C-alpha cells in the first residue's frame, strides 16, 4: 500500500487523492515484503484500510493437468481438495487472529484516536467493556470527535459510570495549582474533592531526608551503622 498508484486503484471512491498520498507516504518506510517499523497509529490505520478496502484478491494458482481427465476427456470443474482448502484456510486464519473478545479493557482512554476506537470496537461488538480515562489529560485535539467514536464502539449496551474524586497522588500544594490549570483548560470540570494533607507529605519528606542523610554522615566519619528510617506516623 506504499505504492500510490496501486493504493489509488484499490481505494477508488473510498479515499481521495490527498488521502492516498498521505497513506502511501506513511507506509513508505516498510520494505517490499511489508516488514518494517510500525507505530501504534499505523496498526489502527492498516486495520481501517483492511475494513474499507478488503483484502486484495490473490491470483488463482494454476492447476496441474490431471491424468484421469486426459484419459476420459472430461475435466472436473472443482476437485474435493479445491472445495475443502478454502474452508480449512479460513478456519486456520480465524484461529490465528481472534477478531472478537468477551471483555475489553481500555486504559488511558482519553488518548485514543477515533480510528483506534473503531479498531477496538470491531473486536468488542459482543463484549463487556471497562473504560478508564481522564478527559482533562486528553492528547487528542478533538475530544468530542473521539467521544463520538467511543460511543459508537460501545453501542447501545447499558453503562455504569464511576467518578474518582479523591486525589491520592499529589500533595495539596500541587493539587491546588493543578485545579487552577484545570479551570482554565476545561472550564466546568469539577476538581478532586481533596488531596493528601500537607502535614503528611511534610512528615514523609522529613523522614526520607533523615533516612538518606544519616548513612552519608556515617560514611564520611568512617563508621558504618544500619539506620532505620522513622515512620511517617512517628514524625508527625
UniProtKB/TrEMBL annotation:
Transmembrane segments: none
Bias (Low complexity) ranges: 206-215
UniProt name for this protein: UvrD-like helicase ATP-binding domain-containing protein
Region described as Disordered: 133-156, 185-236
Residue stretches in coiled coil: none
Listed Gene3D superfamilies: P-loop containing nucleotide triphosphate hydrolases
Ranges for domain UvrD-like helicase ATP-binding: 81-138
Signal sequence region: none
